[in-house]
Amino acid sequence: MSLPHAILGILGYMPMTGYDLKTQAFDKSIAHFWSAVLPQIYRELERIEEKGWATSSIEIQHDRPNRRVYSITDAGRAEFARWLHEFQPPPAHREAFLIQLFFAAQLRSDEIVALLEGQLAARQEQRARFAALESAFDGDHPREEALARLTLDLGERITETYIAWLEDAIALVKALPS
Amino acid sequence: MSLPHAILGILGYMPMTGYDLKTQAFDKSIAHFWSAVLPQIYRELERIEEKGWATSSIEIQHDRPNRRVYSITDAGRAEFARWLHEFQPPPAHREAFLIQLFFAAQLRSDEIVALLEGQLAARQEQRARFAALESAFDGDHPREEALARLTLDLGERITETYIAWLEDAIALVKALPS
DNA sequence: GTAATATATAACCAGATTTATATGTACTCA
DNA sequence: TGAGTACATATAAATCTGGTTATATATTAC
């Protein structure tokens, strides 16, 4: 329900191919709150075109395969503007590791600690990835930049919350009577 | 991939019907980290039985419709124990509201603030729901209880993180030049 | 010659959600 | 008394969304 609008949001800035959307937009700026794989993006672009929210044209290239470039239409802009005001309910939290933890009483404490440490390592990597993104701001569009920074900031805060919780959880489980 | 294991985890404590799983387990203790709707649970129970991880039998009732009660098998316990040690990668963060915020530069600041306030209200309700759950601990199984509390605690911390971030974001957007 | 990069798409599968349907009891409101 | 509604219980069908795998072509780099 939101992927088409993420795509419209990007096309609002400039026309793009599916490949560009994936490599330049999804994998770079917005991966931390919405990800999509290539076939998904291409399929969605077809649907967007069917609905008249974008048009596409082939751009001939001689050094590389031809590209199909999508441009947003007025109808697409209108749809996006409408959607921008719609309330989006917070997504359900669904995390397999928490099922494990919830039912981990049958494990020895050191096994539970191992689970927690695996998660801690993953979250620390995530923190490092956020730190690497930090630098990529151009400074030319302060309003856009402030909002982009906000979404990044949330991702970082959540990651820190996980790390602190995992550290506390490890200490707690170590102190648990078996 | 995890729903069957959540079900096995519950059946490990006692035999249950699909309806019980939904109303007693999913909607109560574990809704804050894994949710499922009724048809999904019934379908999954069929698959679990096909794989030999549980058996079912009809329990005749006279005041209400008959119930199909599922019991975990040794193979089911073995599968669950095996799965308990498997690393579960953190799920991708996918939140429609963050797409809105990221692309909200075209909105007036007061419109952005309205979006943020909608999310704030939703997260405050979530906090209230967590507070209501707090009390439901029996105290008979300290190990199980400690782990259940841990999962609840994470949910609460994440909710607080959102609330603090939303409050900061509102202040920031209000101060933004248009 | 092999790998990597750029580009596009088809086919399929898995998981989650919505909607509908069925049946029996109990309760409520007019 | 009868009509509607809620609760307990189970399942089917359809749909949507996301993800995996494979395939195809062209160029450049190693």
Strand-helix topology:
Two copies of one chain form a homodimer.
Chain A: H1 3-11, H2 18-29, H3 38-50, E1 54-59, E2 67-72, H4 74-84, H5 96-102, H6 109-133, H7 142-174
Antiparallel strand pairs in A: 1-2
Helix pairs in contact in A: 2-3, 6-7
Chain A binds a DNA duplex (30 and 30 nucleotides) through helix 2 and helix 3.
Q: Can you characterise this structure?
A:
- The structure is a homodimer of 178-residue chains.
- By secondary structure, chain A is mostly helical.
- Chain A folds into two domains: 82 residues, Winged helix-like DNA-binding domain superfamily/Winged helix DNA-binding domain (Arc Repressor Mutant, subunit A, Orthogonal Bundle), CATH 1.10.10; 79 residues.
- Helix content of chain A is 62%, strand content 7%.
- The first copy, chain A, contains seven helices and two strands, in the order αααββαααα.
- Chain A has a two-stranded antiparallel sheet with strand order 1-2.
- In chain A, α2 crosses α3 and α6 packs antiparallel against α7.
- The radius of gyration of chain A is 21 Å and the shape is elongated.
- The model of chain A has no long low-confidence stretch (mean pLDDT 93).
- Chains A and B meet through α1, α4, α5, α6 and α7 of A and α1, α4, α5, α6 and α7 of B.
- Chain A binds a DNA duplex (30 and 30 nucleotides) through α2 and α3.
Compact summary:
The structure is a homodimer of 178-residue chains. Chain A has helices at residues 3-11, 18-29, 38-50, 74-84, 96-102, 109-133, 142-174, and strands spanning 54-59, 67-72.
